[in-house]
Amino acid sequence: MFMSIIIENLTHIYNFGNPFETKALNDINLNIEKGEFIGLIGHTGSGKSTLIQHLNGLLKPSSGKIIINGFDITKKGVSLREIRQKVGLVFQYPEHQLFEETVYKDVAFGPLNLGLEEEEVHIRVKEAIELVGLKFEEVKERSPFELSGGQRRRVAIAGVVAMKPEVLILDEPTAGLDPRARDEILSQIKALHQKYNITIILVSHSMEDIAKLVDRIIVMHKGNVALTGKPSEVFRNVALLESIGLGVPQITYLMKMLHKLGKPVREDIFTIEDAKKEILKLMRRN
Ligand code: ADP
Ligand code: MG
């Protein structure tokens, strides 16, 4: 069976039948292939968090199906434990959920719950802590509460990575971090993807971050998928993106402006690195 996530006619209604009823997802259809790095983007309230919480069984659809690796996880009697081992979900502000007295214990919590041998747990904890860019020996016995905000966030991510999920979903993993911590976490997520070829779904509202990292973007708007495609395809739709409160990366606006001024530069540039090459080319020409 081909390893993938298939979302079929997924609708989610909160508070069904009472005055607070909200349709958060409206008949969503999506296919995500194994190994894809997906950027899920959309304005606040567009349904991103609701969507991803369906992928590990935390929320149940009001209607529709979710099939992961050929297995319908929305069927009655499905083991949520098994799903959660396959699909790791890092919530927004995951450090708020750290609770153990040491970093080691916090990261080991999930693997221990899977019933793994102590030795295997140790290997996984060490590997996960190093994968998120922390030094195992330095942090293992420390209290998560003594660490910086960025480090705490990484410990929380390590706890999910240590479960060795096939799909890793991160809900705004850089929210509230300073630029340096943000760049570090993003580059570690990228390294994880490259090293293990796991499927990654990164929820973000930063066009800059998404443009740099992902294979494909899914744009949500009011519970619907407004657009999906490679960054180069999605960022062509400037007017549509702006109409739903988004936009394209700042650097893309700059390139478009240069193009408009008659400079022979490409407009389909989304990262600072590519812009630099293009601008250097232009300068050499003059
Ligand atoms: P996003 O993550 O894109 O900001 P959400 O999935 O959190 O969007 O929210 C989608 C819609 O569902 C919003 O209108 C939001 O107010 C509503 N919503 C989210 N969570 C709940 C909840 N637990 N109860 C009721 N409504 C909710
Ligand atoms: Mg959200």
TrEMBL record:
Gene Ontology CC entries for this record: ATP-binding cassette (ABC) transporter complex
GO BP annotations listed: cobalt ion transport
CDD domains: ABC_cobalt_CbiO_domain1
Principal location class: membrane
Source organism superkingdom: Bacteria
PROSITE patterns noted in UniProt: ABC_TRANSPORTER_1, ABC_TRANSPORTER_2
Residue ranges that the Swiss-Prot or TrEMBL entry lists as coiled coil: none
Keywords, comma-separated and alphabetical: ATP-binding, Cell membrane, Membrane, Nucleotide-binding, Translocase, Transport
Pfam families for the chain: ABC_tran
Molecular function GO terms recorded: ATP binding; ATP hydrolysis activity; ATPase-coupled transmembrane transporter activity
EC number: 7.-.-.-
InterPro entries for the chain: AAA+_ATPase (IPR003593), ABC_transporter-like_ATP-bd (IPR003439), ABC_transporter-like_CS (IPR017871), ABC_transpr_CbiO/EcfA_su (IPR015856), Co_trans_ATP-bd (IPR005876), ECF_ABC_transporter_ATP-bd (IPR050095), EcfA2 (IPR030946), P-loop_NTPase (IPR027417)
Compartment(s) of residence: Cell membrane
Segments forming domain ABC transporter: 5-247
Biological function: ATP-binding (A) component of a common energy-coupling factor (ECF) ABC-transporter complex. Probably part of an ABC transporter complex. Responsible for energy coupling to the transport system.
Similarity-based family: Belongs to the ABC transporter superfamily. Energy-coupling factor EcfA family.
Subunit architecture: Forms a stable energy-coupling factor (ECF) transporter complex composed of 2 membrane-embedded substrate-binding proteins (S component), 2 ATP-binding proteins (A component) and 2 transmembrane proteins (T component).
Protein name in UniProt: Energy-coupling factor transporter ATP-binding protein EcfA2
Lineage summary: Bacteria, Bacillati, Bacillota, Clostridia, Peptostreptococcales
